[in-house]
Amino acid sequence: MLSVQFSSNDTWNQPFRSFEFLIRLLPSAVAGLLIALALSVANGASLNVDQGFSVLHSFTISEGYSIGVPLIDGSTCYGSASWGGAGGVGSIYRVNTDGSDFDVIFSGSKPNASHPRVSAISDSTFFGTWSDGGNGIPGAVFRIQTDGTVYTALHNFTGPDGYYASSVVRDESMLYGTASSGGDYGNGVIFKMNMDGTGFTLLHSFDVSDGQWPGEVTLSGSTIYGGTMKGGANNRGVLYSYAIAPEPSPVTIDIKPGSDPNSINLGSNGNIPVVIFRADDFDATTIDPATILLADAGVQTRGKDGDLKFSFKDVNGDGIDDLFIHIDTEGLVLSAEDIEAQLTAETFDGLSIFGTDTIRLVGSSRGDFDMDGIVDVSDLGELAAYYGTITA
User: Fold this and answer.
1) pLDDT digits (tens, 9 = 90+) for 6-52
2) What distance in Å separates the CA atoms of residue 7 and residue 1, rounded to the nearest whole number?
3) Spatial separation of the C-alpha atoms in residues 181 and 139, rounded to whole Å
4) Options 3.40.47.10, 2.40.160.20, 3.40.190.10, 2.120.10.30; which CATH number does 65-243 get?
5) How far is CA 342 from CA 131, 295, 326, in A?
6) DSSP notation for 155-179
7) Whole-prediction pTM value?
8) 111 falls in which pLDDT band (50, 70, 90)?
9) Alpha-carbon span 218 to 329, nearest angstrom
10) Do 6 and 232 touch, CB atoms closer than 8 A?
C-alpha cells in the first residue's frame, strides 16, 4: 500500500507563499490585482459568479439532513442523509436530476440501521453502509433496490473486522470499502466482499503509522484510493492506494493420476505425483514450478543442485502437454477430516491459479488412527471419537 504523508504546515494558505516573489518584481498595480484575485478564490468566489448553480431540493428535518454525495444513474439521483428522516438517524432518497419527483425511499432506525451512506450502484440495486447502529453495534454494509424495497444487510461488523463503516465501491463482481475504526489495531480497515455478502475479507488494518480513521474511497481500474483523518508520519493523515490482487483462476488437477481413490500416507516420506492440465484458455507450461503448493507442500527437488522435479507430458491424451510434478509427502498439511486437497500456484506473468482434487488419508501402520504417520497417544483421541471415552 502506497501513502503520502501530510504535516501541520500543509495548510490552506500555502499558495500565498508562491506570490511573494512575484509581488517583489511586478508593478504594484499588478501585484494588487493578484492579491485580490487570490483572496477571492480563497473565499470561494469564481470568475463566473453563480453561473450554472441550481438548488435541486431543500431538505426538511423529516426528510433528512447532513446530505452526502449522491449517485447518478441516468436522469435519477440517489443519495443519503446521515441524520433526520422518520427515525431521526438518516434516510435514503431518490430525485430526478432536475430536482423533480423527490421521494424518501428508506428511513433508518436504531439499532440496526443508522447514519447511511449510499456509494455504489449496480442495475436496480445500490449499496452502502450504516456507520453506527447504536448500543455498541458497529454498523453494516447493505444493499437495497432503487425503489426502496428489499433491504438486506450484507455484512454486520463486529469490531475486530471493522467499526463505523465508511463507504463501499464496486467493480464487476466485488465490493470494496473501509471502516473508520476497528480492525487489528483499532484504527480502521480496508475490506472486500462479494456482492451477495459472502467472502468478507480484511485487506488491510491501519496501525497509525500508515494512517488512522479512513474515510470514503474511490476505485480506478484495480486500485483503491483513499485518505485518513489522522495518522502517518506527521499524524495529519495520509493519502493511500491499495492495489487489488486479481482473483485466482481455477484449473483442473489430478492427484495420483490413474488412482481412485487418491490415497495418501502422510508418514511415507515419499512423494505424490500430480498433474496440472492444460486447457483451451490456459497454458500449463506458463506455471512457475517454484510457486506450486499442494496443501502447503512444495515440489520435490532432486540432485545436489536442488532442481525441482517436474516435466511436461501429454497425460490425458489430448495432444497437448500438461505439467507433471512430484510433491513431497512430508510437507503436506492435512488432517484426518480432509477429503480434498488444494493446489495453488502462479504463472510467470503473475496470474494466480488454484485447483482441487479428492484425497483419502491412510495410516502408515496399524494403530495410526489419526493418520499422522506415528502411533502414539494422540491416536486414542480418534478412537474415543468413535467408541466413547477410553480409560487406562
Assistant:
1) 665 554 444 444 434 333 444 444 445 444 545 555 555 555 566 78
2) 20
3) 11
4) 2.120.10.30
5) 38, 6, 15
6) EE--BTTBEEEEEEEE-SSEEEEEE
7) 0.62
8) confident
9) 45
10) yes
- Please calculate the CA angle 355-358-364 and round it to the nearest 5 degrees: 120
**β-strand partners of 313:** 322
- Amino acid of residue 263: S
Tell me how far apart the alpha carbons of residues 339 and 182 are, in angstroms, rounded to a whole number: 36
Residue whose entry in the numeric block shows the C-alpha cell 497509525: 208
Q: Domain ranges for the chain, please list them.
A: 6-42, 65-243, 249-362
Instruction: Specify whether the CB–CB gap between 122 and 154 falls below 8 A.
Output: no
CB 382 within 8 A of CB 369: yes
Cell of 201: 475479507
Whether CATH 2.60.40 fits 249-362: yes
Q: Judge contact between 231 and 6, C-beta under 8 A.
A: no
Residue 368's alpha-carbon distances to 33, 40, 267, 269, in angstroms, are 90, 83, 10, 15
Cα gap 143→147, rounded to integer Å: 12
User: Which amino acid is residue 27, in one-letter code?
Assistant: P
Give the residue carrying C-alpha cell 506415528: 374
Identify residue 295 by its one-letter amino acid code.
A
Which residue type, as a one-letter code, is found at position 252?
A: T
Question: And the C-alpha cell for 11?
Answer: 495548510
